[in-house]
Specification:
heterodimer, A: 448 residues, mainly alpha, 3 strands, B: 347 residues, MetI-like fold, 15 helices, globular
Amino acid sequence: MSAAWTIFTVIYILAAGFLFTHKLLPFLVTKAGRAMGFKMEMSPIWAKRIARFKRIKRGYYAFRIITTLFVLSFFLELMLNNRPIAIHYQGKTAFPAVKEWLHSVLFFTDVTYFQKKSEWGQIGESEVDYRRFKRYSRDPDDYADIAEMRKEIEGKPAPRKEDSYYQWEKYQKTKEKIEQHEALYETFKDGSAWCVMPLYPYSWSEHLLDLPDRPPTSPDWQHPLGTDDSGLDVLPQLAYGFRISLLFALLVAAIGYSIGVIVGGVMGYYGGWTDILVQRFIEIWSSVPFLFTIMIIASIIQPQFLHLVILLIILRGWIGITYTIRGEFYREKARDYVQAAIAMGQGDWKVMTRHILPNALVPIVTFAPFGIVAYIGSLVSLDYLGFGLPVGTPSWGGLLNQGMKHVLHYPHLILITAGSFSATLFCVVMIGEAVREAFDPKVFSRLR
Amino acid sequence: MHGMMTYFIRRVLLIPVTFVCITLMVYSILRIVPGGPIEQAQLQIKQAMMQEGGGAGGGDMTGDLQIPQDAMDALKEYYKLDKPVLVGYLYWLWGVLTGNFGTSYIQGDPVLKVIGSKIPVSIWFGLSGYIATWLICVPLGIFKALKHRSVFDTGSSILVFLGYSVPGFVACMILLVLFGGGSYWDLVPLGGFQSQNFAEMGFFEQILDRAHHMFVPVIGYLITGFALMTILMKNSLLDNLGADYVRTAFAKGLSERRVIFMHALRNSMIPITAGIGHALGLLFAGSFLIEKTCNIPGMGLLGYMSIIQRDYPIILGVLVIGVLLRLTGNIFSDIVWALIDPRIRFS
């Protein structure tokens, strides 16, 4: 595949991802909402806020970039993978990457995407070497091993079993392999075998054994971002790490803010002893050094993804928003419209959710991006310290940790990881700043 | 003034409650899970016997090691593991109150001695970082406020956002890669507190050596607080510049310089100065991430290593120091605020 073709494909994928995220998805959501009987129209004040957000170009572009990349990252298995999208050999076709993708999206299903070598024209019982399969299916003469093996045994007398059993066994096995390969050569030669690899044919989980040097290796044409010290390609690790980090932060923010809004709302709405007791509890709870506590717990239970999400929500995620929401509810409750609703006999829950909450949404929306920055930072810090996601999960923190081990000789690990990490956070900060300016504009008046 | 006294008394009374809640939580976590001192002792004895056995040329190494029951009981009694969690905690708490934090499982030294030797290192870097933050952020914030919406303001805002999106320890890493003598330039050491031959140096060499080692971590600490402090300074000054008393001052005919620096600036320094209490934790206990990245043997690295080595007395000791610093720091901030801002009334 030529470089021009690769660049063209990348641009094509990005454009398709953009159109999908920002044209098709909103359209579908609106249609679905209307079909379910919702009005799907924004109140004028929200329409105004969003229009103001769209006018702040840097934040709006950052928003488009991040959301496009995030939605695209749910299709990573089809773009950065060592398994082919489709593979055809001797009349049968399989779709390992598609199956893997389905498995990762519908993680509760039981899908096997493992393909045995012996069934796909290779020797052995382990998983097919798809990149090699692709090479042979394009050019059967690329069977380099045969030539080498033939060189090894041809022209020499066959070792006798009595002299050296080891030599004899080796000879027999090599001979057998050559025969098998020759048979395979015939099947590949007719050109009926084919295989469609993803755009970047390396996966985050494949330890590469055919590297030119001992890993880690610096960037080269085959692995444009280099490999790490266990022979894993850095590029797919970064991409899958992006998905995991952002998903993690979004989950913590969403659940944490929901809990925080409920707690803060109850505090502000009811006031009195409820308020005082919960305030004291929050005061105590917010003094827990959360990074240290998570490290202690993580050193013991070796947390999975969801454990970390829950830990971070419990220790930190719900607290920050309660202060503002409590204030908002406290203030709104005194307003006439709320008193009117209460006088009409509306229940507490309904008053809180239907009447007050829509007026208290602004702080949640303006807090969220900065919360996401903080949670991505927490995950990367924990991974870096070795108390984060289990070993064998693609993670930015893990790459940084490796980078510090090879700080003198392999700068690519740190520079690339820190660069993409900071660029991601920078985009989210830009979004947050624009959202704040659009939703909660501050006008500074000055005399001179 | 009466309301304020009750406020502070309540805050001070809340300290012991908070302290007990947090330490009890962590103590219980540490007690309930495996990997405690008994397992550590078993491991140590096992290793010792392996070495001995290796020297003697044999012996049965395959079976599980059995510690005699009475030795086991003695160990459990020593570590208060034979008692319920709560009783063990009370023993530990009594020890803390009488100044006895126990001894480190790994090093065998008293916890207070170990921590005492690490705190100065952390303060050295934390304090320099904090001073650097002040020296850079306050003037920058003032300048940004005075030139609000100018080219300089927009340009430096990009810097501020960048500082917000690059965590301090990641900045340290980038600096170490670029200037640590690896693939690019060799300007700074790869970490540590001072050079190996520090004791043999002359006075000025020592100062230079310290400064040499301080460069990267101090920038790390600087970036940690850079964005928030600059923005706080700028917004605080902007708020004050729009206030009525500033208008009055201008109306009196005072010069612009005098109004800004004598009237507005003094009031807008209040929130920043009061933040000093919240920075106490970072000042004394350092940051895990920066201390690990730059390999500084301070409190942060001690806490990190103690978790890896399961050295429970040290973990609890570091926790105690951290929690106390945070709690007193918050109150300290309030006191400072009340002292410098006569308008503040806590209740």
